[in-house]
Specification:
With 388 residues, the chain is α+β, with helices and mostly antiparallel strands. The protein has 3 domains: 119 residues, DNA Polymerase III, subunit A, domain 2 (DNA Polymerase III, Chain A, domain 2, Roll), CATH 3.10.150; 111 residues, DNA Polymerase III, subunit A, domain 2 (DNA Polymerase III, Chain A, domain 2), CATH 3.10.150; 120 residues, DNA Polymerase III, Chain A, domain 2. It is 20% helix and 40% strand.
Length: 388
């Protein structure tokens, strides 16, 4: 292999590729960034054995070929070089046991780096062309941001996955949940709805967050295989493929429907005022008592906290409230995290009971719902978390 390429044309793709290389692995295949040169292009590839990255960039290909380079070291070297043209040339090893060497040159700078033989390479999954759907990268980024913080980190079951399923008339529901929080965003995309299987798809949170890092504001193409999700830039320059998970996702329609009951209590509260108060209340929370307690009346909500080793706090907010619930407690940091993901100036908390699901919504956050579970209020103000 012998190519000439400009550092500034490939360094971004190389860094994305290196980000997938596992920190600890004994497999040279996984430690490598694979470079294939042909047809005036170089293709850069890497995998952690689950996610696969592929990027295609313009280059002057004098001699085609495929090699694997020590990924992190190769990228670190190129990152520290100035902008300009690079020459990458492979010198074949002599003798059966001899290894090939990659010569890297830029002006008077010359380096030699060991390479892995192409026989070690394992083919990456190709993007399936039939049925691919165009989607907005910035919309998918925002969707992930609004759902991922409500997904568990365990990694072993459905509660560690992002769930997306088709509805009627081109509607789609995207959701995530832990034992105490749930987030759902509904939107319309007829093409994507038709692409999704009836049972929906599941993507583990760790893979979802890697995809979010790669996404940009431009358009993307998306397709779904039997076992993988494929995402590609609209200009076909880069692509990712992610493994799908195959768990049974919990039926969340039961507790979502409960928010429409006639006997719910509703609290309308200014988001910014509530966030500011809760941030001060959190100062008085402790490991044993991490709650904000709400005493509710028609025009006022009094928020309190009691930290045995710290002290106590009490703040009053002007609200609009209707319902028969006089007092409720929420994990302070959970409620803060939820409110930070809304844009609406005013939020509505729909409470089904002192320990029942509480829905959070906002007029300017259409089709976005978050559910948080209150904490049990005991006489000594200790708390135990309820699960959905």
């Amino acid at each position: 292999m012998f190519i000439k390429v400009y550092k500034e044309e490939i360094i971004d793709g190389l860094q994305k590729s290196a980000n997938l290389i596992p920190q600890r692995t004994g497999a040279a295949y996984l430690r490598s960034i694979w470079i294939r040169a042909e047809n005036e292009k170089i293709e850069i590839m890497s995998t952690d054995s689950n996610i696969e990255f592929r990027g295609s960039y313009a280059a002057q290909v004098i001699e085609s070929g495929l090699i694997g380079v020590p990924g992190r070291q190769f990228v670190e070297l190129l990152r520290k070089l100035p902008a300009g043209q690079l020459s990458l040339k492979v010198e074949a090893g002599k003798g059966d046991a001899a290894s090939s060497v990659l010569h890297i040159e830029q002006g008077r700078r010359k380096y030699r780096m060991a390479v892995n033989d192409s026989t070690w390479f394992q083919n990456f999954a190709d993007f399936p062309e039939d049925g691919a759907v165009i989607w907005a990268g910035d919309f998918l980024q925002e969707l992930i941001d609004r759902i991922a913080y409500c997904i568990g980190d365990d990694g072993s079951d459905a509660l560690s996955c992002f769930f997306m399923k088709p509805g009627v008339l081109g509607r789609i529901e995207a959701a995530g949940m832990t034992g105490h929080q749930f987030a759902m965003r509904s939107f319309t995309n007829g093409d994507l709805s038709s692409l999704l299987p009836d049972e929906g798809i599941l993507i583990q949170k760790k893979y979802l967050l890697e995809m979010k890092k790669w996404l940009a504001d431009d358009e993307i193409e998306i397709n779904i295989g039997d076992k993988r999700l494929f995402v590609r830039r609209a200009d076909h320059s880069e692509s990712l493929s992610l493994p799908l998970a195959f768990h049974q996702y919990p039926d969340y329609t039961i507790f979502v429907a409960g928010l429409k009951s006639d006997d719910v209590s509703k609290l309308n509260i200014a988001r910014e005022d509530a966030v500011n108060s809760l941030e001060r209340i959190a100062v008085f929370n402790t490991d044993n008592n991490a709650c904000a307690y709400f005493d509710l009346s028609e025009k006022e909500a009094v928020i309190t906290a009691q930290g045995h080793d710290v002290g106590s706090a009490s703040e009053s907010l002007d609200v609009e409230y209707s319902g028969g619930l006089a007092k409720i407690a929420f994990p302070t940091n959970n409620l803060l995290g939820i409110m930070d993901h809304f844009k609406s100036q005013e939020l509505t908390l729909t409470m089904t009971g002192p320990q029942g699901p509480c829905g959070v919504s906002g007029k300017d956050d259409s089709d976005y719902l978050v559910i948080v579970m209150p904490m049990a209020i005991l006489e000594e103000k200790s708390s135990s978390e309820e699960e959905i």
